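Purpose: get a first structural picture of the assembly so the mutagenesis plan has something to point at.
Setup: four entries, given in the order below. No constraints added.
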Amino acid sequence: MDAIRELTERFSQFPGIGPRQAKRFVYYLLTRPNGYLKEFSALVNELKGSITVCPSCFRFFPKRHENSSLCDICLDTHRSHEELMIVCKDVDLESIEKSHSFNGKYFVLGGTVPILDKEPNRKIRASELIKTITERKPELKEIILAVNFNPEGEHTSDYVSSLLKPIIANTPIIVSTLGRGLSTGTELEYSDSETLKNALEHRQSSNS
Amino acid sequence: MDAIRELTERFSQFPGIGPRQAKRFVYYLLTRPNGYLKEFSALVNELKGSITVCPSCFRFFPKRHENSSLCDICLDTHRSHEELMIVCKDVDLESIEKSHSFNGKYFVLGGTVPILDKEPNRKIRASELIKTITERKPELKEIILAVNFNPEGEHTSDYVSSLLKPIIANTPIIVSTLGRGLSTGTELEYSDSETLKNALEHRQSSNS
Amino acid sequence: MDAIRELTERFSQFPGIGPRQAKRFVYYLLTRPNGYLKEFSALVNELKGSITVCPSCFRFFPKRHENSSLCDICLDTHRSHEELMIVCKDVDLESIEKSHSFNGKYFVLGGTVPILDKEPNRKIRASELIKTITERKPELKEIILAVNFNPEGEHTSDYVSSLLKPIIANTPIIVSTLGRGLSTGTELEYSDSETLKNALEHRQSSNS
Amino acid sequence: MDAIRELTERFSQFPGIGPRQAKRFVYYLLTRPNGYLKEFSALVNELKGSITVCPSCFRFFPKRHENSSLCDICLDTHRSHEELMIVCKDVDLESIEKSHSFNGKYFVLGGTVPILDKEPNRKIRASELIKTITERKPELKEIILAVNFNPEGEHTSDYVSSLLKPIIANTPIIVSTLGRGLSTGTELEYSDSETLKNALEHRQSSNS
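Result (structure tokens, whole complex):
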């Protein structure tokens, strides 16, 4: 197999990319200057060397030459240790950070648990989570399960809850999930009953 | 102008219909049997004769030959008089009814108030609303503003709130809005900050 | 069944309309002034009275009070009798007319012949076509089959060809089909092999 | 700038990729095994070393260790030298090859000439084309301009024609363009007048 085909196949495995766009990527690279490919190749090759996984929250972050191996969020002393948000992926964490609405710590599961999956422990960082919660139990007040509102997200949330239950039993730690209701742009006419029910249940007084 | 063009023009004004589909409607009618057009025409002609507006909640409903002129929801004695939900349109009311999550009464505004509109009173049933709230004040405990989560919905909600304020001042009546957060299918990665902030603010304990 | 539901059901049968949009149509009508509904209803009721089918080309056209019962295209003496274009539907004829690229006469089949249909004669004006071609045989030079380039169009074209064959055998009448190749906006990268093959086969010298 | 951001920025420049998908690519790479990244990086780095541009048709093709530096199409003695198809991009050539409808040689321009571009010669291989045509003039019978049927394609075709004109003047060489008409899936109702006009102009007898 020649290099065009081989690289096309690799790009076809990228998330959301079909064989046609994969080939366009390869031709795109072929028409770049030589230096560009060298640089791009080096960036890919050194990616894992310069990016590391935070041993505390398990998100990816750029390695630094300081003493600590923790990421900037975990190092940030202005963030509360009392709240821990569990997210599935790094991009979820980034979305939350961009909303500037959370000032606690995170734990990145590294994936979701598909429904009917027989080895859920292998899809997410289950043992790392158990260890983290066990250690931080004394200082924790709330664990927030921040998952997508779809069947796989729900299932992951249920599975994680079942992992947490024995650890936090007999502690005052609250386990919470993200609120449900109307999201930006939602129109009542086109809403499903589940969403409307949640929106009504969680309605808020606007008198204040 | 011939009948094909004239009817095409009428159909073009239907919500969501362009001139091309409008013309397809006309040819569709032209190829129906004669009896079909007679029936369809009669249905349109008699629509307003057989459908009336409920004098209490202002929704459209089929006229009955009984003594009362109220719609079935307003007549339903099993529904609470203490909660009144204000919706913009009949279809919104129908969505809520389909979700089986509300057991109070309704008020249909009949429209929304566009941002920058100079005569908001003419777009919605403002005076009817004022009259309704004034009359029912003694029995009301909560007024729910159920509007779309978009700028025009927000604006309508604000305007209606300003109408209600003087009437319910010094009463214990609560004015509430639909809860916000993740709606069915929402993925954190693709959520706007506003939605995430709402979801986090309204997070719920799942311990119970 | 009440009038809202009944009319919603009728609109649901309109081409391309689902139950939700159908209901929006009904509420649209309910919020029109009384006179509007009367007019609209009358337009529908009188549609077939004011529109008639041309006995020569079988297209719909507005009735006139003159002596002739033919449509304006069939009456137009500037149009050639030597070329007859067979189209499936009135909208196809209108598209061709709008392109100002044909100056002959038309015959509207009134539909297409679905693949595997057991009674093709009932889906299109087969006997009328046979009669028309038989009568006009002496003056005809070319019959153009103008159908959609999709399986059902092809099938209709094949079926019509089989109807024409015995009639025009031993005559110099040419039966032609629309040319194939690149249509406006076609990009080679995304074209199917069939289209490229046609485009190449029918390539044209640009020297002149 | 850290490696995640830097690589995200690179991927954002890939054809059809926005910043969000670019970031997903980076996280996709981060979760691959170490060996995968090494391999992928090597493939990118060696791409231009193993793929070369054919000095005759200017398409990209995998280098071989044989004596000839020509691509397999240019080497193929079963393909006619009398027909030369000029295409804008490698993917266009591949589409044509996949249709198995052309058995001549190719010339890849390497791009298109944008409308209003002031230096068209820099966007395509103009001088190489002039050289190629000048050399092969004696054996050429037809030059086929195979471009997209859109304004930029048309403009490129016009520009290339103007380059060819002085070279092939006083030769019997035909310059042709791809045929136009209905492409697969085209429906008359939704066709533009230009396409219908072409389809009608290039209609074909189906008598044979």
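Chain D has a mean pLDDT of 93.
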